[in-house]
Write a structure and sequence with these properties.
The complex is a heterodimer of chains A (306) and B (370). With 306 residues, chain A is an alpha/beta fold. Chain A has helices at 20-33, 49-52, 76-88, 91-98, 101-108, 113-127, 147-154, 156-163, 168-180, 196-213, 232-237, 242-269, 286-295, 297-301; strands at 9-14, 38-43, 63-66, 69-74, 139-143, 186-192, 217-225, 273-277. In chain A, strands 3-4-2-5-1-6-7-8 form an eight-stranded mixed beta sheet, with helices on both faces. In chain A, helix 3 (76-88) crosses helix 4 (91-98), helix 7 (147-154) packs parallel to helix 10 and helix 10 runs parallel beside helix 12 (242-269). Helix content of chain B is 57%, strand content 12%. In chain B, strands 3-4-2-5-1-6-7-8 form an eight-stranded mixed beta sheet, sandwiched between helices. In chain B, helix 2 (24-37) crosses helix 17, helix 8 (128-143) packs across helix 9 (159-174) and helix 14 (259-274) packs parallel to helix 16. Chain B starts with a helix and ends in a 7-residue tail after the last helix. Classes of the chains: A alpha/beta (306), B alpha/beta (370). At the A-B interface, helix 3, helix 4, helix 5, helix 7 and helix 9 of A face helix 7, helix 9, helix 10, helix 11 and helix 12 of B.
Chain lengths: 306, 370
């Protein structure tokens, strides 16, 4: 199994609340450890990756957080400005047009324009080069929005190509689509928890990415799984301790649920599933992210699933 | 009387808000269930329920229609509701289509449905899902006999999208830019325009360099088509806006106690307050109970291997419970004056009626987390 290091754009998505940002932070750290210049992109959100890594927030401009690690929170207004400047070339012209209140109103209603410029900025950074011709960022980790928003976000180029008359926007969209669908460049990592809805959403996301965006699922991460601890004999022995039995039974149920969820994901995604155990730490910081990274080693470097 | 008990007895609309994956759907369904049991005909509008919850509510295989949850479904709980309970699964696209069918002149409907800008308005425009969900609630509130409508909101990327949704739709129909662009064409009374009818300023020309000329023209044509039904739309959008601020509408903010969720909850709470909307309660879902001294001493009597396993589990729970306590304290400090209601983490996913009933006991204060 090829590892993520064979790709340059790592897209992390899944249901809200499953730990996408944790996984994105762990993958970014793994990329840095592999010696690659790495850029983490969050999309118009409260930044989490930098916080998990106990580093200062990046904000809307690309910022170097530490050796080989950069981050950016891609936001609509700044991205629109950069995109506008690229198309309209001159700052004064940009200002006249885009800082015109009426025009700003109008632009809000051009369908998908916001997503287009956000995605455009991200893919622009993916193609940036150093003066010596090497990639400026060898890995770009995209902490993508949750399921539904991720699908509409990533399918914007396709949707535009199908619905909008040819023009500057469609030319940009075509370039973006070609990058996204290239399996040599792009890999999707779907994150789920061992519960019904997150697993179903991962499967739904997998189908939508495949059919609507033509991105293949590279792997899934089953996050916060409870490892098996209590045997049936243990549970039987606890019948005279109802309070403890309840605790043990709950643990046992959640461990079984993790096994079932892993199997369901593997069968339906036809992609390897990497399990990250639930961590019990008072505060989720850099140490915790490094622990998670340890469980994702095979996903990053290749080889057999954990 | 707890805050939610009072709300269930007196409110006409309850809107459950919060980020994805915190149990909004469960809380919404539970509130409608309890209101019906207590004698107020209620409906819960959900967006995308877990399959088992949908089945439990008799929603499987249903589209965008109101369905009665039969009293027989509640029998195993030993509960006889005094009023009817309905549920519906909102289909965003179908709700938009219904709206157009109501508002648009018959001869224009097909043209609107076929327009690519309409298609993206109804599925992709930021805030359009939020808007249409609330428009549905407004409609139910006006035209039906339900005493209580509970809305389970779509997972918003941003709290602001939700509160801003009616404004965005009003803007779309009624903004100065559109008027400015469209006035010459409206005066000329024609739909097939060229760009120079659109106020042929250099701003328009520069804008078209950005979007392409055809794109700008198509969008203008679409706005022109919509402008013929502006009044109907505007009246409804104002109604929706009014509904959000109405005294009989309450917001129930659902969150889980982990730090990232709490940040969002606190942010949302602040926005609601700024917008002078009523925050009925904050429900903190899936709180871990602190292991009791009795559990620890009981564990000490087990055989060494089992004792080690049980104590390990209790230690883990202790860590989780401690985190939750800190989260609750943070939330209490950030949202003074808003009642906090804790619902414990149950063993497994909460997706059947028994579990809904259990959740309801905590929501309404029959049970309280120690």
């Amino acid at each position: 199994m090829a590892g993520l290091l064979d790709k340059r754009l790592w897209i992390v998505s899944g249901k809200g609340g499953v730990g996408k940002s944790t996984v994105a932070a762990a993958l970014a750290l793994a990329s840095v450890r592999a010696g690659r210049r790495t850029l983490v992109c969050e999309v118009n959100t409260q930044e989490r990756v930098s916080r998990f890594l106990e580093l200062p927030e990046a904000g809307p401009e690309v910022k170097r957080l530490e050796e080989n690690l950069w981050a950016v929170d891609v936001r609509p207004q700044e991205s629109m400005r950069e995109y506008g400047l690229m198309v309209l070339r001159f700052e004064t012209l940009y200002k006249t047009v885009f800082e015109n209140r009426l025009v700003r109103y109008f632009l809000r209603f051009i369908p998908s324009l916001q997503e287009l410029v956000l995605l455009g900025k991200i893919l622009f950074h993916l193609q940036e080069k150093l003066p010596d011709g090497r990639w400026k960022y060898e890995t770009l980790v995209l902490d993508a929005p949750a399921t539904g928003h991720a699908i509409s976000f990533l399918s914007v180029p396709q949707v535009l190509l199908q619905t909008v008359p040819p023009g500057p926007m469609t030319r940009e969209a075509l370039k973006m689509r070609d990058l996204l669908v290239d399996p040599a460049v792009t890999a999707a990592v779907l994150v789920a928890l061992p519960e019904e809805m997150p697993v179903n959403e991962a499967l739904e996301l997998h189908g939508a990415l495949r059919d609507r965006v033509h991105i293949r699922t590279h792997a899934a991460v089953l996050n916060q799984a409870f490892p098996a601890r209590f045997t049936e004999a243990d549970l039987e022995a606890l019948v005279d301790h109802p309070e403890l039995l309840r605790v043990a039974q709950a643990h046992h149920d959640r461990a079984s649920q993790a096994v079932l969820a892993g199997t369901k994901l593997e069968r339906n995604l036809h992609a390897p599933v990497y399990t990250v155990p639930r961590l019990f730490v008072p505060r989720f910081g850099r140490d915790a992210v490094e622990t998670v990274m340890g469980h994702l080693d095979a996903l990053v470097t290749g080889g057999t699933g954990a | 009387m707890t805050a939610l008990q009072a709300a269930l007895a007196s409110k006409r609309v309850l809107i459950c808000v919060g980020s994805g994956g915190v149990g909004k759907t469960t809380v919404a369904a539970t509130l409608a269930l309890r209101a019906a049991v207590d004698g107020r005909p209620s409906i819960v509008c959900t967006i995308d329920p877990a399959k088992r919850l949908a089945n439990a509510l008799g929603l499987s295989g249903l589209g965008n229609a109101e369905a009665e949850v039969h009293a027989s479904v509640l029998e195993p709980l030993g509960v006889k509701p005094k009023a009817s309970l309905h549920a519906m699964m909102l289909d965003m696209k179908a709700t938009w289509d219904d709206l157009i069918t109501r508002v648009a002149p018959p001869e224009q409907r097909e043209r609107i449905f076929a327009n690519r800008f309409y298609q993206s308005l109804s599925t992709a425009l930021a805030g359009s899902q939020e808007y249409i969900a609330m428009e549905k609630v407004w409609d139910l509130r006006r035209s039906s006999d339900y005493e209580l409508v509970v809305l389970d909101t779509p997972p918003t990327a941003h709290a602001l999208d939700f509160l801003d949704a009616p404004n965005r739709v009003l803007d779309f129909l009624d903004n100065e830019a559109a008027k400015w662009l469209l006035t010459p064409a409206l005066k000329a009374g024609k739909v097939g325009l060229n760009l120079f009818n659109l106020g042929g300023s250099y701003v328009t020309r520069a804008l078209s360099r950005f979007t392409g000329t055809e794109m700008l023209q198509e969008l203008s044509s679409f706005m022109l088509t919509l402008s013929t039904m502006n009044e109907g739309f505007r009246e409804r959008a104002r109604g929706v806006r009014g509904l959000l601020e109405d005294k009989t509408t309450g917001f129930v903010l659902v969150t889980s106690p982990n730090p990232e969720r709490l940040d969002e909850a606190i942010h949302f709470h602040k926005l609601l307050k700024q917008n002078r909307m009523e925050m009925t309660a904050i429900v903190v879902n899936r709180v871990h109970a602190v292991p009791t001294p009795a559990q620890w001493s009981d564990a000490a009597t087990l055989t060494p291997t089992r004792r080690a396993k049980v104590e390990e589990t209790l230690r883990e729970l202790q860590v989780l419970a401690q985190q939750d306590l800190e989260g609750m304290a943070q939330l209490r400090a950030a949202c003074p004056g808003t009642p906090l209601i804790q619902v414990p983490r149950f063993g497994l996913d909460v997706h059947d009626l028994t579990a809904l009933w259990g959740t309801g006991r905590y929501l309404l204060g029959d049970d309280v987390l120690a």
